[in-house]
Amino acid sequence: MKPLHNSQPGSPPPRSRAGARRPLLTGLAAHAAAPLAAAAPPAAAPAAAAILLRADTAGPVVNPNLYGHFAEHLGRCIYEGIWVGEDSPIPNTRGIRNDVVAALKNLNIPVLRWPGGCFADEYHWRDGIGPREKRPAMINTHWGAVVETNHFGTHEFLDLCEQIGAAPYVCGNVGSGTVQEMMEWVEYMTSDADSPLANLRRANGREQPWKLPYFGVGNESWGCGGGMTPEYYAGEYRRYSTFVKNYSGNKIHRIACGANGDDYHWTEVLMKNAGPRRMDGLSLHYYTLPTGNWRAKGSATDFDEPAYIATLANTLKMDALITRHAAIMDRHDPAGKVGLIIDEWGIWTDVEPGTNPGFLYQQNSLRDAILAALNFNIFHRHAARVTMANIAQTVNVLQAMILTDKEKMLLTPTYHVFEMYKVHQGAATLPLALSTPDYECDGKKIPALSATATRAPDGKIHLSLVNTAPAAPLALTCTLAGAPAKRVTGRLLTAPAVNSINTFEAPATVAPRPFHDATLAGGTLTLTLPQKSIVTLELE
Q1: Which residues are catalytic?
Q2: What are 400-421's pLDDT values in tens digits?
Q3: 519 lies in which domain range?
Q4: What b/e sequence results for 303-314 when a residue is b if at least 16 CB atoms lie within 10 Å of its CB, and e otherwise?
Q5: Distance CA 259, CA 283 (A)
Q6: Is 198 contained in some domain?
Q7: What confidence tens digit (pLDDT) does each residue in 232-251 have?
Q8: Of 59, 266, 445, 501, which cross-links 259 as Cys (Cβ 3.0–4.6 Å)?
Q9: Residue 342 and residue 351: Cα distance in Å, rounded?
Q10: pLDDT of residue 44
Q11: Which residues touch 526 (CB under 8 Å, ≥6 apart)?
Q12: Largest pairwise CA distance in the chain
């Protein structure tokens, strides 16, 4: 074997090529060995992998905001997923579902982005305040052309953030709004002055201003947010952001609309023309498409092994995207003042058959959990520059944490990854030297093993591991340098198949369970990592 990955950013992603469909099997090839048979017998010895973990060398801290979320007025994310109204038979607090709040609180969600997404640039905040029966309705032109009642507005969103303990990240309307509208929204939310806008907030039931730490100046201004060039948007950002003011001791981090995927020119222009003196964050949007084709993205549940490895290969491109965007940012901002904010990411598949195509409702499988863990491992490697990430989206849309059906609710496999990885929030990254075989299928290769390690403020080390191979376990030896650990405990997430899902009839098909197969002896950790699995270990 030769080393594939370590803790440093910049590892190139594997190539992805379309391939013929065939049943789910396994292909696992060690680097310095002949490939194993395509379908190894169950009794075959697991392939070997190795990690050198330098517990005596702390790196950048994992910003808790890397575990952020995104809730847009889209499909059933807000209405039914979060908001049911105060008169609903579904148990709620001021109209917000109690079961969803409890589940989200359990994730220690650090930050929640709202109201969009594309919806943000057609949203006018004054329509969402005051008595609900008097709020004007609108057409949600981006997502299904349904009527938006505006019953969930500024007060309801900030109430949700307080209920789940998350910091609010509000995205302002640059596409169809005005500078004055944006300026007045910020004042309405954050000023404690005896002023018309602060008094309007008080008249609507909120005496004290809210703390608003994050504000996005537009969304996808290169596309649904206005079809702008980077040069034009940079000028608009400079103008609009000037009026996103700090009131009453509130400090807003101003986040500029960043690039779509690999549009490095956009980042270059924004950093040059708006730069670290005017912005605190620059966003990046990248979605994993199983096929790489927006017109036929692929099914969330009905896929074969070539589609599985192609999906993971596409998500691993996140590493190269961050590396190249960060290099541009480094040239213009060597002090690292501007955070790279990946405020839309996740898998985007075709909608579930029979559902409204504008609602972006998709199921969530073990494949998606593995994909999420791979992205977290990438984010950790770039923790010096990546300061926030917001998965799309929180409930009932795209790669959701939660699915609901009226009064029923279930937790998705991706939810469980967020829960297992929350131990990394606010912890210092630890460098890893990793040697792994490849997982190979249909002429494509990706690393079979992905890993990340952190040291928490209480001294505990957490090591999270992903085995991407769908049918081949990995025998792992981890050497702990500078870590006199005496005890190891763990949790495992796996399922019968990579397309296993949770349903309302069987909500625990994919759920974490204790992992007891790790052994510590003389500074060496050994374990066999099950196929298609995620394991998080705690070392004390």
Answers
A1: 220, 344
A2: 999 999 999 999 999 999 999 9
A3: 3-60+429-539
A4: bbbbbbbbbbbb
A5: 7
A6: no
A7: 999 999 999 999 999 999 99
A8: 266
A9: 23
A10: 62
A11: 475, 476, 477, 478, 518, 519
A12: 76
